[in-house]
Amino acid sequence: MDGSDEASSQEKTTNHAGLAAATEKERSILEACRWRDLEALRAFAESPGGFLTDRIRQHAWPVLLGLPPSHGNGSVDSGVEEGETGSWKELPRHRDEDQVQLDVNRAFIYYPENQNEAELARQKDELSALILEVLRRHPYLCYFQGYHDICQVFLLVLPPAVRTPAVARLSALRIRDFMLPSLTPAVRQLRLIPDILRAADPQLWRHLSATEPFFALAGMLTMYAHDITTLGEISRLFDVLLAREPVFSVYMFAAIVRSRRAELFETPQDEPEMLHSILCKLPRPLDLESLITAACALLNAYPPESLAAWRTISHASVLRTARVPDACATQSMADGQVFFERQVAELRWLERRDKIMEVLWRYRRPARSLGFAVLIGVAALLLRKHPGPAAYVSGLVSRWVRL
């Protein structure tokens, strides 16, 4: 046997071994889906290749999102409320539908490839219907630009029967913070990134200290679907994002920042705009396997409870209500709405408090500082417990400072 024949034989043996290993992994993942073994699925999602194929993802993703084995039965609801048997098209329009249509018109830019006009039009109609059904059935949710990027992946991977309940549960239980009427909770998530860098890489943290973490906003909001341009890569990343707790996405971006360490140090610290521009775009090529491993290591070494910015995260945020990986699979859609309404109430309280503080600061008078302190204390207490009387106190403050 000459050298070329021997090399060819070794290559065939290697390929055969790799195929056998993939086949065994596939069988093991499907078995874990059958038994709804979330811990095993999480391990497979973190391992190289994740769930391997879309055919396997069609079994694994619904389990991770808490859909019951038989649609409509089981202890965990499917995302369609009991009694909602009518067509979603008969439900009232959602307030954000015009923006939905604008975004759907821009969908399917990178994948799937080689579509003709008729196929593209059909998929856009399906995407629009998927988003509108979720929003009309759960009208408390607020649409955000980039939501269509996430839904596009679910549409291309999952079969029609489970798309709507899967996206509904994802929306209410995993990305709820981004579907509130304010971006404040999303910004608070971003503030965790500098804290992770400070703990894991103080030198890099100091280099980026003048750069706000808003570079991560598009990636975080869209589960990276806005920035990753191949279906295979984004589906692979969704494997682990759905298997891990929601805060994992924050650690994923911290790992991405650290992976660009050498490149970032080539840009001076006093040029935050340039650093921001670099970090707004994901590195190419994107070594997802290494980044997933790095993100897991960061989360294990520096859990969110050890970060200063964690204190600013609402107790109704998905980062806290789904702090353990299995929480999203066991919570109900009703739970998601309760948490949503709790966060909205907190946001309204913060807005009222900030307005009172602004008035006090604008009209502050040293001689009346004690009186102001008493008023702001009473106002804060009432705002939290009794929003109605608080409005009276707010007006009282305004009149007092103008005397």
Task: Identify the notable features of this structure and list them briefly.
single chain, 403 residues, mainly alpha, Cyclin A, domain 1, 21 helices
Q: Can you walk me through this structure?
A:
With 403 residues, the chain is mainly α. The longest helix has 32 residues. The chain is 64% helix and 0% strand. Among the domains are: 148 residues, Ypt/Rab-GAP domain of gyp1p, domain 3 (Cyclin A, domain 1, Orthogonal Bundle), CATH 1.10.472; 57 residues, no CATH class. It contains 21 helices and no strands. The protein is globular and about 65 Å long.
* CATH architecture call of one domain: Orthogonal Bundle
Strand content: under 5%
Query: Which value, in Å, is the CA radius of gyration?
Result: 25 Å
Q: H/E order of the elements?
A: HHHHHHHHHHHHHHHHHHHHH
* Spatial separation of the terminal alpha carbons: 102 Å
Point out poorly predicted stretches. Answer: 71-76, 387-393
The average pLDDT score comes to: 87
CATH class of one domain: Mainly Alpha
Kindly report the CATH topology of one domain.
Cyclin A, domain 1
User: What do we call the CATH homologous superfamily of one domain?
Assistant: Ypt/Rab-GAP domain of gyp1p, domain 3
- Tell me, what's the shape? globular
Estimate the helix proportion, in percent.
55-70%
Q: Give a short account of the largest sheet.
A: none
The total count of helices amounts to 21
Number of strands: 0
Would you tell me the structural class of the helices and strands? Answer: mainly alpha
GO molecular function, one term: GTPase activator activity
InterPro entries: Rab-GAP-TBC_dom, Rab-GAP_TBC_sf, TBC20/Gyp8-like
Pfam families: RabGAP-TBC (PF00566)
Keywords: GTPase activation
